[in-house]
Amino acid sequence: MRTHLYRGVLALVAALVLSAPAFAQGIVKGKVVDEKNQPVADAKVSISGPARNAETKTNNKGEYVQVGLQSGPYTITVTKDKVGTAGAKVTVSQGTPVEQNFTLGAAAVGGLSPEQKLVQEAAGSAIEALRAGRDDEAITKLNDVIIKLPTCSDCYYNLGLAYTHKQQWPEAEAALKKSIELKPTNPDPYNGLANVYNAQKKFDDALAMNQKATELSTTTGGTGGGSAESIYNQGVVLFNAGKYAEAKEQFVSASKADPNNANAFYQLGMTSLNLGQIPDAVNALQTFLKLAPTDPKAAQVQATMPALQ
Description:
Elements: H1 2-14, E1 25-34, E2 44-48, E3 53-57, E4 63-70, E5 72-80, E6 84-92, E7 98-99, E8 102-104, H2 114-131, H3 135-148, H4 153-165, H5 169-182, H6 188-199, H7 203-219, H8 228-240, H9 244-257, H10 262-274, H11 278-291, H12 298-308
Parallel strand pairs: 1-7, 1-8
Antiparallel strand pairs: 1-4, 2-3, 2-5, 5-6
């Protein structure tokens, strides 16, 4: 009787499994000084990326920090009236804070020329459109930027994301491959390709891309065999391919690498259910509920817990 109950719960809960990995979060920090190497206080720091825009200010020491950023490429612009403007592009990876310093002034290191500023503004506008879900607008604007700056790896990466949102797989694949061609050491487009292949059920290709992203995350400063995000993504690909034992290993590793990643515990619970490992499933799902009690999946998970226990 209890075996049949488990099967019924499994059928109900397995339907809740995510088909795409959740994005992890990261940190950008740095210091802003003037031409005399003196701290610049109250400088405006604008950070724009594919998932969100953020804005902060420097403190009295000229320092700034922004937390809660998802992994991916970002454009940072720093401005201070009567001092100057500077900007830079960075790639944020979960678990590895990015440090970007600036010097403001007429001849600022990292400052933007008028032409560069126009291109940056256009790229920022394209990313804002992408963040708002206006994929067609983002595609048009990103292609315009690419014409002016054909070596912009981040532009191709974001173009790939826009095509992925529209499920235009050949275009997404081509854009992400171009991003890799321009900057082969960046793990983000490999993760993007993994999502493209995963959506098309090309699980072997997806796993290969995730493994490459994990390798690059390690060699570029990650620890523990790759970022928690890449490890989690590998688990999702393996789960969707029906390789539950291998998927569970990845979700266990991801939950250890990032103990606050609620989705890792959720997927660990789902995988354990598919393996018939009920106690492990209960432990993982209880942790998920503690970390994300207001998550849309939480109510359905909570409803199944009495039967599992």
